[in-house]
Amino acid sequence: MEFGFSEDQLLLQQTVRDFLAGECTPEWVRGQWQTETGRSPEFWSQLSELGLPGLLVSETQGGLGMDETDLVLLMEEIGRVGLAEPLTATAVGVGLLRSLGDASLADAWLPKVAAGDAILAVAHPASPFVADAHVADLLIASDGDSLHALPRAALRLEAQTSNDGSQRLFRVDFDARDETRIATGREARALEAAALDRGALCSAAQALGACDQLIALAADYAGQREQFGVAIGSFQAVKHMLADVRVKLEYARSHVYRAANSVANDATGRSVDVSMAKIAACEAALLAGRVSLQVHGAIGYTYEQDVHVWMKRAWSLDLAFGDAVFHRARLAAGVIDRSLPAESFGYSHPQRVPTPTAGLG
Amino acid sequence: MDLTYTPEQDAFRKEARAWLEANVPAAPLPSFDIAEGFEAHRAWEKKLHAGGYAMVPWPVEYGGRGSDLLEWLVFEEEYYRAGAPGRVNQNGIFLLGPTIMEVGTPEQKARFLPKMASSEEVWAQGWSEPNAGSDMAAIQSTAIRDGDHYVINGQKTWASRGAYAHWLFGLFRTDPDSTRHKGLSFILSPLDLPGITVRPIQKINGKAAFAEVFFDDVRVPAENLLGEEGAGWNVAMATAGFERGLMLRSPARFQSTAARLVDLYHATVERGDPVAPGMRDRVARCWMDAEAYTLNTYQTVTRLLSGGKIGAEASLNKIFWSELDIEIHEAALELLGPRAELDPRSPAAGDAGSWLDGYIFALSGPIYAGTNQIQRNIIAERLLGLPRK
């Protein structure tokens, strides 16, 4: 039992954090909002040099051969800077191709992903929209029964405009053909469920980073901005709002790290663990957005100020790979209906409920 | 990251479960806040101690079994699973004990820890005074050195377990000219010395859960000073760290309460009693939050086992468990409907009484161990770097 990260894992996180702090500034993020695709092939090749798109790809296929417990730490950093390059979509695609019984697609695509030469995406029925379908070289989508692996030329995309300038969403249509079919029936459902869990985990980890950044922006501002002759951060009304967000962030982190372990090991309670992580992390990030806005006051409500950059990321992440309604329904299915496995950590509740303890204290 | 238990930990769990199943009293003990219940709980502690389970992470020579904190968590999981009695000496074993372990002299460890582990000596806390509550540095009670004794004068209040306890630990001003955090010392005092008057205080359910303790020229041997003279504030902060951050409220307490809430939800639905539309969500959420608290505690223990310390993060913890406890009990009372107000002795109470008792206790959570408002100040100032003034 060891619930923590190794020095190597934390070192890699720090390396990525330092790199992103230098490159992925709020000005750069806003610049990307204005471009046609919103995505930068140059930046993608820099991310590839760090090994990020191929993090889950095996070393023999040119990747880093790491797992989701490594991935979440880096996703947190991606969320901290508000980067929207298709790393989640690619990680979900890699996870899915790796799980196929027939290895030919994985053999064909994963080395290209690791080299930074291919982007993947996966559609899931939990959302009518697919992020980054416009830059995906291969998209995996369901026709209602079977899963299909579709090259870009086979897709018809209808672009949507998200409130978050970083988010590029599409409605995807395609003609299902026998040669694009990769899985059917129960296998397809299982692959789809695993893909959703991996995507939700990545979104939750990014939400942690966005939350932390929104707190940092507000704490920094509250330490400088003076009213009534003192820094507004000295007022308890301000302190307590921010402390409440910090509490939520702390416990959301615990859920996300545990869910990473559950996805990496395909644990029995995986789906409920992921839903808890998604609910907790997105709630923390959404609250952080509101509180950060309130601490900044009117200046935070302007377009020039950066609060909305992360606040809108938080809104997008909350809706990605299952919104709160989807995940709360899954949580209740696990905890209340027991129609999904929900595994308590350590404690096992007896069938016969023991007499409650006397002498509370 | 490795979230699996070792074969040794699994074996320990099995052993603890078997012992608890064979030994936990079948009927609940009377409350330890009445005289009869206090003694019944001490008798239980004696049995637990004889079984070797009173304080598993302590060294064997002090009455423990030399386990680490992970085995302690496993034990706590089994303890709550078995529905075993509350720990009457929690001030001693969970708060003072770890502090003595950290700063006590070898003589103090040998003198105090074994009798604490067996609950031969039960401890009360002596922090607050009438004019020093949230502002604990305003303590006025003095302990003036006179030869090989300290002479204590003053008044402590809200001393948990004070009504029946044998000993009290607390902060006293050893330098009468000092102010605020300086000049305070951490002193251990028997409660039966001449000059001590204990006046029990009833909490809102009418039971004497705490007490006022008056000191009138009470002579306490100087060897009962814990840590350096004048360094009491720092020693007390270590104690508060254990209280807020780890030992006082082990996660299984909330996991078992949340699991009972799920049971109560099903029982209510099966009886055909009305259930509010949002209740499924609330119940599931309570269960989820109890899991979060558990996961976070395992992270803390992992950090402590690799040499880390409990810092200001303890304040995050204290807010989370105390507010979760209230959430769980409020959901339960809502499920109980018109039975929610029934006292445990009421004929139609059934399990409602124990939920009401639990709720009344939970309401004290955001107040004791440093109010949640003080914890929020600590988080904002020490974790987020906001200005004190």
Could you explain the architecture of this structure?
The complex is a heterodimer of chains A (361) and B (389). By secondary structure, chain A is an alpha+beta fold. Chain A folds into two domains: 7-185, Acyl-CoA dehydrogenase/oxidase, N-terminal domain (Butyryl-Coa Dehydrogenase, subunit A, domain 1), CATH 1.10.540; 187-337, Butyryl-CoA Dehydrogenase, subunit A, domain 3. In chain A, 54% of the residues lie in helices and 10% in strands. Chain A has helices spanning 7-23, 26-34, 41-49, 68-81, 87-99, 104-114, 185-224, 236-264, 270-296, 307-319, 324-337; strands spanning 120-122, 130-131, 138-142, 147-151, 155-161, 168-174, 181-183, 226-227, 230-231. A four-stranded mixed beta sheet of chain A has the order 1-3-4-7. Chain A has a three-stranded antiparallel beta sheet with strand order 2-6-5, with no helix packed on it. In chain A, strands 8-9 form a two-stranded antiparallel ribbon. In chain A, a hairpin with a 6-residue loop joins strand 5 (155-161) and strand 6. In chain A, helix 1 packs parallel to helix 4, helix 7 (185-224) runs antiparallel to helix 10 and helix 8 packs antiparallel against helix 9. Chain A is globular and about 70 Å long. Chain B is of the alpha+beta class and 389 residues long. Chain B folds into three domains: 7-88, no CATH class; 123-230, Butyryl-CoA Dehydrogenase, subunit A, domain 2; 249-383, Butyryl-CoA Dehydrogenase, subunit A, domain 3. A four-stranded mixed beta sheet of chain B has the order 1-4-5-8. In chain B, strands 2-3-7-6 form a four-stranded antiparallel beta sheet, with no helix packed on it. In chain B, helix 3 runs parallel beside helix 7 and helix 9 (314-336) packs antiparallel against helix 10 (352-362). Chain B starts with 6 loop residues before the first helix and ends in a 6-residue tail after the last helix. The mean pLDDT of chain B is 95. The chains are: A alpha+beta (361), B alpha+beta (389). Chains A and B meet through helix 7, strand 9, helix 8, helix 9 and helix 11 of A and helix 3, helix 7, helix 8, helix 9 and helix 10 of B.
